[in-house]
């Protein structure tokens, strides 16, 4: 770590960095930032930077408000969108109390704790997200809703289109930040795009997701458009998901791979999927944390609504992608419920915890779904034992509040804050009178 700190201090001097931004997230997943002068970085490494935690969503109660942001030197990067004028760098931070203990409500620490538990069982957890978002002409909207930048569809090539330049600029910027991109393309909705990040360990990837969202927002501002990660911004068009591929490794060996097994999927992999399925409803208030998230889950367009798994079945909640011959390391499972507005630290912690629980308890994997689950009738789904994901944030909170797994993984402080914060969101939503109600009822009743 001392070598890494020396590297950071040397790079700041050599590159003429004028500001260093210290980044962390609140419990909802909003990025927070404080800028310090280069001269303060060495002191920040030694002692942290103090701030009032009670002013940040969910980090502390008012009577224990003093916290420290401790920069992680391994996350140091120059921010490419700042250019050569006042070069600016960033580091992610771990949040601690004044006596040096990890802050119980720091989302990054929640994930670190889950990863430590996996490490005790001999596993390293890798993730690879496919992140969707919409490009709109602006953040304002009229009676017909937001206006997308184009009317293109899935994989469409749009000559001279905004999305091409946008994706090219974004990918270049991500690569400059050390974030490897696997694919980028236009998605199914008008103005909708997807960029897939190459797999990395879950902590690095959670940091990358937070950086990704900032890069996309910055490039949008630069190009005169507006980017949103709202789960379902347009009625009648697909929502924005963050399908995430996962695998566990034991050293260099993929624990999900077993040569000759069905889909080359090991017992460990099958138990992991069973854990995801069994606890899907309990973790939904975190994997799908907004009222709007459930408009996506229950809006069709390949979003999963039922707790099923399948091989290459895009209507299933958990998918086992096609096996690549002679690539045992690529065996993985894909969880399709997450949306792009998720707090990646908390979501990855809970998905890992659910999968590990399946392995520990040797949960039995139910039969796979071979049909398009959406095309089945309710009676057919019942007969096949396919239960539904929560239909609303309210339903998700009911499942979460009774979950030992979620309470243990998040810790008491984060668990209670999420419940309280999300109940307030649901009550505010439930109490409004919507345009649809006025349209259908005002003159009729």
Short description:
The chain has 445 residues and is of the alpha+beta class. The protein is built from 14 helices and 16 strands.
Feature tags:
445 residues, alpha+beta, Ubiquitin-like (UB roll), Creatine Kinase, Chain A, domain 2, 2 domains, ten-stranded mixed sheet, six-stranded mixed sheet, 14 helices, 19% strand
What would you say this structure looks like, in words?
This protein is of the alpha+beta class. It folds into two domains: 98 residues, Glutamine synthetase, N-terminal domain (Ubiquitin-like (UB roll), Roll), CATH 3.10.20; 324 residues, Creatine Kinase, Chain A, domain 2. The protein contains 14 helices and 16 strands. Helix 4 crosses helix 5, helix 9 packs across helix 12 and helix 11 runs antiparallel to helix 13. The chain is globular and about 65 Å long. The model has no long low-confidence stretch (mean pLDDT 91).
Overall pLDDT score: 91
Cα gyration radius (Å): 22 Å
How far is the first residue's CA from the last residue's CA?
A: 69 Å
- Overall number of domains: 2
Reading off the top of the CATH hierarchy, the class of the largest domain is best stated as Alpha Beta
Describe the global form: globular
Series of H and E elements = HEEHEEEEHEHEEEHEEEHHHEEEHHHHHH
CATH fold name of the largest domain, please?
Answer: Creatine Kinase, Chain A, domain 2
Using the 3D structure, state the CATH architecture of the largest domain: 2-Layer Sandwich
Secondary structure: number of strands:
16
């Amino acid at each position: 770590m001392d070598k890494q700190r020396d590297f950071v201090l040397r790079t700041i001097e050599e590159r003429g960095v004028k500001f260093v931004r210290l980044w962390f997230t609140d419990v909802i997943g909003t990025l927070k930032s404080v800028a310090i002068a280069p001269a303060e970085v060495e002191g920040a490494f030694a002692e942290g930077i103090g701030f009032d935690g009670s002013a940040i969503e969910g980090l502390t109660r008012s009577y224990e408000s003093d916290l420290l942001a401790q920069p992680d030197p391994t996350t140091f990067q120059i921010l490419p969108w700042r250019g050569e004028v006042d070069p600016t760098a960033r580091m992610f931070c771990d949040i601690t109390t004044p006596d040096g203990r990890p802050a119980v409500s720091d989302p990054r620490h929640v994930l670190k704790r889950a990863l430590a538990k996996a490490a005790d069982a001999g596993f390293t957890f890798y993730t690879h997200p496919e992140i969707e978002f919409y490009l709109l002409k602006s953040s304002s909207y009229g009676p017909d809703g937001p206006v997308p930048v184009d009317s293109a569809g899935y994989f469409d090539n749009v000559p001279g289109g905004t999305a091409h330049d946008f994706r090219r600029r974004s990918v270049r910027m991500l690569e400059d930040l050390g974030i490897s991109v696997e694919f980028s393309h236009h998605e199914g909705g008008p103005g909708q795009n997807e960029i897939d990040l190459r797999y990395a360990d879950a902590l690095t990837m959670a940091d990358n997701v937070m950086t990704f969202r900032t890069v996309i927002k910055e490039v949008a501002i630069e190009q005169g458009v507006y980017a949103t990660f709202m789960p379902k911004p347009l009625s009648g068009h697909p929502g924005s998901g963050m399908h995430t591929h996962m695998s566990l490794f034991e050293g260099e060996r993929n624990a999900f791979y077993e040569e000759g097994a069905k889909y080359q999927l090991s017992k460990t992999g099958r138990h992991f999927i069973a854990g995801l399925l069994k606890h899907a409803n309990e973790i939904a208030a975190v994997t799908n944390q907004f009222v709007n998230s459930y408009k996506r889950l229950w809006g069709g367009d390949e979003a999963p609504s039922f707790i099923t798994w399948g091989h290459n079945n895009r209507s299933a909640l958990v998918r086992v992608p096609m096996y690549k011959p002679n690539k045992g390391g690529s065996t993985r499972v894909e969880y399709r419920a997450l949306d792009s507005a998720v707090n990646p630290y908390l979501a990855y912690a809970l998905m890992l915890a659910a999968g590990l629980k399946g392995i520990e308890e040797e949960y039995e994997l139910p039969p796979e779904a071979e049909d398009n689950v959406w095309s089945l009738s309710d009676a057919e789904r019942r007969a096949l034992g396919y239960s539904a994901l929560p239909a609303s944030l309210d339903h998700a909170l009911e499942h979460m509040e009774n979950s030992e797994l979620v309470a243990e993984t998040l810790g008491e402080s984060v668990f209670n804050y999420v419940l309280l914060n999300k109940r307030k969101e649901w009550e505010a939503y439930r109490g409004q009178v919507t345009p649809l109600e006025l349209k259908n009822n005002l003159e009729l009743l």
